[in-house]
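Hi V.,

You were right to ask for the full record rather than a summary. Here it is.
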Amino acid sequence: MFEELSLHVLDIAMNSLAAGATRVEVAVIENVRHDWLIIRVRDNGRGMDEQTLQQVLARNFSTKAIRKKSIGLGLALLRQTSEMCGGTFHLRSQRDRGTSVTASMRLSHVDRPPLGDLEATILALCTAGPEVDVRLVYRSDGQTFHFSSQESYCQERDSHEPRRTQETQGKGSATSRPA
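Predicted structure:
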């Protein structure tokens, strides 16, 4: 198990980049009132066929041929964490259409790892795949923060609202990333 949930996100999203994704969407939804944390990573990469999809949750299964020994623990560990913390895990994939991984867990569960440094995770993804549109939606009890590494996504969502990078910190000032 990773010490922080953001490391699970990084692991899954890096696999998305390796699968040729041009868009990686990360959604984190915290709902204190209903005691849920939901994390979803979705991409438009190569996806997996049915046989691979059934094998991928087994420990030590990996599609990476460059390793001498398969490690393949990322999805299995996230599923274990989700279920251990009173939640669920869903994996959907379609060949040439992409993959979606959704993990939910009780927000207050004593064994739930902290979310961790989500900002560093998103920055690492943007750096690892500068041509990839990395998107983040972070929702916490009615407040929503949107980020995209490509300006067009935020403009599509709401053309009169600038990208906000400090919105979750309550500062509300608009800041734009240098082109």
